[in-house]
Design a protein that fits this description.
It contains four helices and five strands; from the N terminus they run H-E-H-H-E-E-H-E-E. By secondary structure, it is α+β, with helices and mostly antiparallel strands. The mean pLDDT is 87. The structure holds copper (II) ion (CU).
């Protein structure tokens, strides 16, 4: 009974005896927004080097590959990094939206996520890069 009294006393005193929902400290740390510039490539040909895998000589192949649904990415020559790109909104891939920019440079704004050794740019904005 002593224990019960103690709990009641704590409650009366307003001491949180029961677990209070933790503050949302552990919400995912906000990923920093970045803008990356790179050439729009189809990932398959880029990594296998098919017809060079990028640039004007590979443009038609990249168009066909991206139309066909192969994953699309951007290659940032400055950092020598390939990013798989996915739009932040919706459940559609980036292929249709990025098709007009194949073999060109674009500026994509978004956040980078990395898991399993794969870097993915989750973008919110596409701009032509000059
Ligand atoms: Cu291709």
């Amino acid at each position: 009974m002593k224990k019960f009294t103690a709990v009641v006393l704590l409650l009366l005193l307003g001491v949180p005896a029961i677990a209070v929902p933790q503050e949302k400290k552990d919400k995912k740390k906000d990923a920093k927004e970045v803008t990356l510039t790179g050439e729009v490539i189809d990932v398959k040909c880029f990594v296998t080097g098919m017809q060079g895998g990028m640039g004007e000589d590979h443009k038609q192949c990249a168009i066909d590959c991206i139309k066909g649904g192969l994953p699309v990415g951007i290659f940032d020559q400055k950092t020598d990094r390939l990013y798989l790109v996915v739009p932040k909104a919706g459940m559609m891939g980036a292929n249709e939206e990025l098709l007009p920019y194949v073999a060109q440079k674009v500026k994509l704004t978004g956040t980078i996520a990395e898991k399993g050794g794969q870097k993915v740019l989750i973008y919110t904005k596409v701009e032509e890069a000059k």
